[in-house]
Design a protein that fits this description.
The complex is a heterodimer. Chain A is an alpha+beta fold. Helix content of chain A is about 50%, strand content about 10%. In chain A, the strands form three sheets. In chain A, strands 1-3-4-7 form a four-stranded mixed sheet. In chain A, helix 7 packs antiparallel against helix 8 and helix 8 runs antiparallel to helix 9. The radius of gyration of chain A is 19 Å and the shape is globular. Chain A starts with 6 loop residues before the first helix and ends with a helix. Chain B has three domains: about 80 residues, no CATH class; about 110 residues, Butyryl-CoA Dehydrogenase, subunit A, domain 2; about 140 residues, Up-down Bundle (Butyryl-CoA Dehydrogenase, subunit A, domain 3). In chain B, about 45% of the residues lie in helices and about 15% in strands. In chain B, the strands form two sheets. Chain B has a four-stranded mixed sheet. A four-stranded antiparallel sheet of chain B has the order 2-3-7-6, with no helix packed on it. Classes of the chains: A alpha+beta, B alpha+beta. Chains A and B meet through helix 6, strand 9, helix 7, helix 8 and helix 10 of A and helix 7, helix 8, helix 9 and helix 11 of B.
Chain lengths: ~325, ~400
């Protein structure tokens, strides 16, 4: 048993962080605020780096790595706020031709009205990045369906997250069945784990931002981080991040090594904790920044709204807690 | 990242599991928690059994008489003891987890020969004399004074929160030997025999009604200089050495026990119908996910300790999160009991089935309040996390 990151895991994370800071620095991403299409050149860069094909066998053009390694990579994508349906396209890689290579961009939605986690109310359906999606995987407890986005009648709306354009879709049509119940469960579970990894990276990033600011912002002749009221908020941010990171990694390992435990319970619990941590840490980051945290300029709000966009499609805390409770 | 156990780890588990299956079912009945002599007899008899089977001092180095098990084996050990519902370390806690490991590293050859074997065999019980009425979180401000008289220190002062004092043979005692310089540079670590004249023990009654702790009044107690561990005025460093033994396994047994408790609460909620309320299921799911996450974090901390030889910073994070979660699980237990939680006497269950276990749950709920206070309050833990891990400035 060795649950520490291996040296290979660490260099994978370092490489992905360098790629993100080099190719997707936040200042540059922010220049596309309000844009309604994905940066396809950037998407190809992600594909070439193996973001979508990482878990495919080498014979299928992949790197043959595990979900644990994918979670390390996705944490970095989350930290950098890389936009687009990265987790959905990754889990579609084995199922949708062209997803792994970045030629097709794939979204993922729970079937409206599905009673399972993420099901929620049947309408309205909101679809992020619809204008750039080639197809959509629609998942419920029984099947995975592939819906071509040309068949969707979407109305563009001003999105909550300035980096995720939104469409209102009145009806999600039936699509071609591309997987049965087992595939649906696996896709759903893996999407929870990798979305959870994105949220871990976001929770870590807002925690880092708040801590750095608390060290330099002076009030009453000392850094605000010297005050316990602020210091303890920062400590709680770290605790939330560390817990959900361990949970996401354990869920990823449970996907790769089925004998170590219930991967569905682990995935649901990890995604729930990561969603809570990303939300709570973004809120705390805004508070630690004080008045500046309330400005458009400070990016804390981008983490807050992105966390909401990602979490929306995972299911409510209550629905995910129900999954864990039933299997505990 | 690999959560599978190796062949040798599994072999260790199998051997331990078969031994536990043999001995645990035929243990005598557990004594009343209020009968300290009976508790001492039970806990030390269990320690003797561990010793005879080669499991005493599982985490102690071999040169100290321990098993020298790897951190992962320690984890497996705790997992298997919990699984078998084996007794806890009980009155052997201070000897096995604090005083013993300190003497292993800092003691003289004579001290090691005199004090270590009786701890491992369960012959001697230790208590801790660290905290004082005016030195809690700020331990270094302790004032119990030791003055050198020939071959003895003469010790006068008051200690508090001393567990198992009534049945202890030895006390690991921190005393002030100097007022010069920083306050943590004038502290000395002594071994005080509990039968020395001048020690008065007054039990403290806790909120659960138990006499778990005592206050020690020391009036001119003579402690031989030969019982000093480390140099005079070097006791603070000696104390910190104990921490270097911690490999992230400190709360693993209690974490696993809390998971078992939550599973039992789920079963009883299903029986009572409370499970049909979304709120109860959501609380079980939320806490279940957090327990799973802490179990993952514990295994991460242990893996890092294996790699680096020192405990990671994750231990404070774990302690902080777990102690608060333990209280929330206990709170759920009380909420599920409803009116039955108003009685500490055992009540019959509504369906005449298994006993409700209300008395034990009420006691567990009350005792959980000490988790965020003992071994570093949650407020101190947050300072530690913020200052040592995040690098935020001290106040």
């Amino acid at each position: 048993m060795d649950f520490d990151l291996s040296d290979d895991d660490r260099s994978l994370a370092d490489g992905m962080r360098r790629l993100c800071t080099g190719r997707f620095p936040l200042e540059q991403l922010r220049r596309s605020e309000g844009r309604r299409s994905l940066d396809r050149a950037g998407w190809s860069v992600l594909a070439e780096a193996g973001v979508f094909s990482l878990r495919l066998a080498p014979s299928a053009g992949g790197a043959g790595l595990g979900t644990a390694q994918a979670s390390v990579v996705f944490e970095e994508l989350g930290r950098a706020l890389v936009p687009g349906p990265v987790a959905a396209t990754h889990v579609a890689a084995a199922m949708v031709e062209g997803a792994a290579t970045g030629e097709r961009t794939v979204g993922l939605l729970p079937r409206p009205g599905w009673g399972g986690p993420g099901g929620g109310p049947s309408l309205p359906a909101m679809v992020g990045d619809l204008g750039s999606l080639d197809c959509l995987l629609v998942v419920d407890g029984d099947a995975v369906e592939l819906v071509e986005t040309g068949e969707l009648d979407g109305e563009p709306v001003e999105g909550l997250d300035p980096l995720t354009p939104m469409w209102f879709v009145a009806e999600i049509p039936r699509g071609a069945a591309v997987g049965a119940a087992a595939a649906a469960e696996a896709i759903w579970r893996d999407h929870l784990v990798l979305s959870g990894a994105l949220l871990v990276g976001m929770a870590a990033s807002t925690s880092d931002m708040a801590v750095e600011y608390a060290k330099v912002r002076q009030q009453f002749d000392r850094p605000i981080g010297a005050f316990q009221a602020v210091k303890h908020m920062c400590a709680d941010m770290l605790v939330r991040t560390e817990l959900c990171r361990a949970a996401v990694h354990a869920a990823a390992v449970a996907v790769d090594q089925p004998e170590v435990g219930d991967s569905v319970r682990a995935a649901a619990g990890a995604a729930m904790l990561a969603a809570q941590a990303a939300d709570a840490n973004a809120r705390a980051c805004i508070q630690v920044y004080g008045g500046m945290g309330f400005t458009w300029e400070v990016p804390a709000h981008l983490y807050l709204t992105r966390a909401r966009v990602i979490s929306q499609f995972l299911g409510s805390s209550g629905a995910l807690a129900d999954v864990v409770a039933g299997r505990f | 990242m690999d959560l599978r156990y190796s062949q040798s780890e599994e072999a260790f588990r199998a051997e331990l599991r078969s031994w536990l299956a043999e001995v645990v079912p035929v243990l005598p009945p557990r004594p009343s928690p209020h009968d300290w002599p009976a508790r001492r007899a039970f806990d030390t008899a269990w320690q003797k059994m561990l010793y005879d089977a080669g499991y005493a001092g599982i985490d102690w180095p071999v040169q100290g008489g321990g098993r020298g098990a790897s951190p992962v084996e320690q984890l497996v050990y705790l997992e298997e003891l919990e699984r078998a519902h084996a007794p806890y370390v009980g009155v052997n806690f201070v000897g096995l987890l604090h005083a013993g490991p300190t003497i292993v590293v800092e003691g003289t050859p004579e001290q090691r020969a005199r004090f270590l074997p009786p701890i491992l065999r369960g012959d001697e019980v230790w208590c801790q004399g660290f905290s004082e009425p005016d030195a809690g979180s700020d331990l270094a401000s302790l004032r119990t004074r030791a003055v050198r008289h020939g071959d003895d220190y003469v010790v006068t002062g008051t200690k508090i929160w001393t567990s198992h004092a009534e049945v202890a043979d030895c006390c690991e005692l921190l005393v002030r030997t100097s007022d010069e310089g920083p306050k943590h540079k004038g502290i000395t670590w002594l071994i005080m025999p509990m039968d020395a004249p001048g020690i008065e023990i007054r039990p403290l009654r806790t909120i659960s009604g138990s006499s778990e702790f005592a206050e020690l009044f020391l009036d001119g107690v003579r402690v031989p200089v030969a019982n000093r561990v480390g140099a005079e005025n070097d006791g603070w460093r000696v104390t910190m050495v104990t921490l270097s033994f911690e490999r992230g396994t400190a709360f693993v047994g209690e974490l696993l026990e809390t998971m078992e408790l939550l599973r039992r609460l789920k079963v009883s909620a299903r029986r009572s119908g409370a499970w049909d309320e979304g709120e109860v299921r959501h609380r079980v799911g939320q806490m279940g996910a957090e327990l799973d996450a802490l179990w993952a974090l514990a295994r991460r901390n242990i893996s890092q300790a294996t790699r680096t030889g020192v405990p990671g910073t994750g231990a404070s994070v774990f302690k902080l999160a777990f102690s608060e979660l333990r209280q929330r699980v206990a709170q759920l237990g009380m909420d599920l009991l409803g009116p039955a939680g108003l009685s500490t006497d055992e009540l019959p269950s509504a369906d005449g089935g298994e006993p409700l276990g209300n008395g034990a749950l009420v006691e567990l709920w009350l005792n959980a309040f000490n988790r965020t206070i003992a071994a570093g309050t949650s407020q101190i833990q947050r300072n530690i996390v913020a200052e040592r891990i995040l690098g935020l400035p001290k106040a």
